[in-house]
Fold these 2 entries.
Entry 1:
Amino acid sequence: MTIYVTGHSNPDTDSVTAAIGLATLLNAQGQDAKACMQTSLDKLNPESTVVLERFGLTAPEEMNDVAGKTVALVDFSDIGQGPAGITEAEVVSIVDHHKIGDVTTNQPIFFRAEPVGCTGTVLNKMFKDAGVAIPKDVAGGMLSAILSDTVNFKSPTCTDDDKAAVADLKTIAGVDDTDSLFMDMLKAKSSVAGVPAKDLLFRDYKDFDMKGNKVGVGQLELATLDQVAAIRDDLIGAMKEVKADGRHTVLLMLTDVVKEGTDLVVISDDAALIEGAFDGKLDGISMWVDGMMSRKKQTVPNLQKAFGC
């Protein structure tokens, strides 16, 4: 029996490297596991591509339908973020660092979710607990994911456990300068030149069910907001197109990593509700939210509260 390990749709670096990491651990424990992702290699986001190339990692296999398969989920537990056929698959394990979603099973499974900044941090503990050495290339991928998800420790999601995992993994991966690694990743992640607006919106995007309302939240981490000034109207157009496909709200977090805040762009059926969620006032269709760095900890919880979830 093969266990197909997959992360969420529009996979980020944590989703991709966590699939590789868990599959590696399962294989080392005598199980047959294969890392998968919900996209093709040529459509993988630039940051993840840089990480795979830097550490010589083989990209997970593209798999967009898991009906009838045995699967392990990493970095998510929401049905809406899973591949087609997820409700017809046998989920045998989940490893995550987000809120518990709506995936259900007919039998007990292995479930490990911790309030840390990255799935890679959880996996680092799992390798230790199992007494399995992390391969150098896999450690490099997990290290990169933690730096990315915690925004080089600037995100409010960052914990001491994440910092300890980075200390472990940098040694295994042979990385002396994690700041330099992070900046290389940021340059790739924030590159927008020549990329269609809709692709940028979906570069790091997730849909959420807010009491029956479909709400999409995308995020672009940037060195400066000037990077998207010339394509702002195109991004808004892409947001409107995506919202028209049955969504109540689409948000785009334009996060300035240097200034440590987010220009939150809002397309919504109820703009006042979004204003209330973040205790702010829209200037047209956007507002600056100082200190907002994390979708998981600062954006989604506020939305859930506003929608009465």
Note: The longest helix spans residues 13-28.
Entry 2:
Amino acid sequence: MNGGARTHPLVVVAGPTCSGKSVLALAVARHTGGEIVNCDSLQIYRGLDIGTAKTPPEERAGVPHHLFDLLEPWEVFNAGEYARLARETLAQIRARGRVPVVAGGTGFYLRALLEGLAEAPPRDEGLRARLMEREARRKGSLHRILRRLDARTAAGIHPNDVQKTVRALEICLRAREPASRLFEQGRRPLEGFRVLKLGLRPPRALLVERIHERTRRMFAAGLLEEVRGLLERGVPRDAKAFESIGYKEALACLEGAMTVEQAIEQAAVATRQYAKRQMTWFRKDAEIEWLEGFGDEEEIRWKALAMVEKFLADFPNVNKA
């Protein structure tokens, strides 16, 4: 689509964890008078602040932030639900004449928002219970079954992510075809927007350093206390949120299964592996304009803002700062 009256600009800031997406997105939003839309599957949860590196309200510089703190940590959420809420949010921002800035590293959520998802079979609690029983008896068995039924979908799900594995298997079994094939059919792409995708790609060695540094900083800033507080207010230890990197290790630390140093090291290693998977996902997107650095670097910020300015030149009617 070309710019103009029929379309509205949408800026995406993507990249691996710890690359400075939130900082750059905030700079873009301030520069354009825009509003930030979260695309991080964990920052949607209330109370998960330190471990998700959520930008505190006092540091948001008056920029509206959307789709943060929507759910309780025990609630289940998926890409389809995210896409629906995010599209509603984009429509509201467009109606205000503002520039939406979608920021986050959850590639599947971003794809669901921009490209749409096919209608998947509804949840089958009986089937899910049987699958969970099998997983309890033989850990890792569900992911191995998924690899046989749908290797493409299995490749995008970590073997330890039981919830996503169960859902993928549920879809395969109920639809009687691979979930990846189902998702390719009947998609409804986002309409009415022209998208500029900015991707942060810092040097691998420097990213690893930052990951270790941030992991230590999270524990020093009170991640254990945050998890203890969640437990005290009734969040069950098997809540979806506690399966995530950092929270899983912090919970194990509180339960005496590992020391603080072990928790920090394991969380850092898991984060490195996650960042690698994120980059593998985003490299497949030929539309991403890559910035070779971190979002908090001045040179990267100015390059990004110049790209945004050029992009917005096609939209003279958009309200800008």
Note: The chain has 13 helices and six strands.
